[in-house]
Q: What sequence folds into this?
């Protein structure tokens, strides 16, 4: 009689992946007049690596501006200006970014958006607890001993093959 015992341990550590989010500016309203973008932005968490999608009619544009131009609705010195009805802007830098519509009067009418971009690591949106700090590294420590290393998937198979008779 042969008896084999197979113990299969599948260890799956689901890392909380920092997935980039595409934020549709203004939600279903898009980038247009009559939307309160302060309220919209307040409901979003912007992380470095995320993108903004502006969808708008041909009477509008997306101008990337300085803080003072945002505040003053100055449309004459944008850092970037996009047209065409569909614009994706990558949020690559930490800190605030400012957008206005370049059509005269539209910024004053509310087509202005400021977002504050958080770093993609170290930030904990939605109340998740911060990751534990890595333990002090001994000079001979193996990398696998580092809590900071996230093991996405590992398969451990232990086979115990026993007895005859
Ligand atoms: Cu406009």
A:
């Amino acid at each position: 009689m042969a008896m084999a015992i197979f113990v299969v341990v599948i260890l799956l550590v689901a890392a909380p992946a920092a997935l980039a989010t595409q934020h549709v500016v203004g939600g279903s309203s898009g980038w247009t007049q009559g939307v309160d973008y302060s309220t919209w932005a307040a409901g979003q968490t912007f992380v470095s690596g995320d993108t903004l999608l502006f969808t708008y009619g041909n009477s509008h544009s997306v101008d990337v501006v300085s803080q003072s131009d945002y505040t003053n609705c100055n449309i004459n010195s944008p850092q970037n200006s996009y047209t065409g009805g569909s614009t994706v802007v990558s949020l690559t830098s930490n800190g605030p970014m400012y957008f206005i519509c370049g059509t005269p009067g539209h910024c004053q009418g509310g087509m202005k958006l400021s977002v504050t971009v958080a770093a993609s690591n170290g930030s904990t949106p939605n109340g998740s607890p911060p990751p534990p700090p890595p333990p002090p590294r001994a000079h001979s420590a193996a990398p696998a001993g580092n809590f900071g290393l996230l093991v996405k998937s590992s398969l451990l198979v232990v086979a115990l093959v026993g007895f005859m008779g």
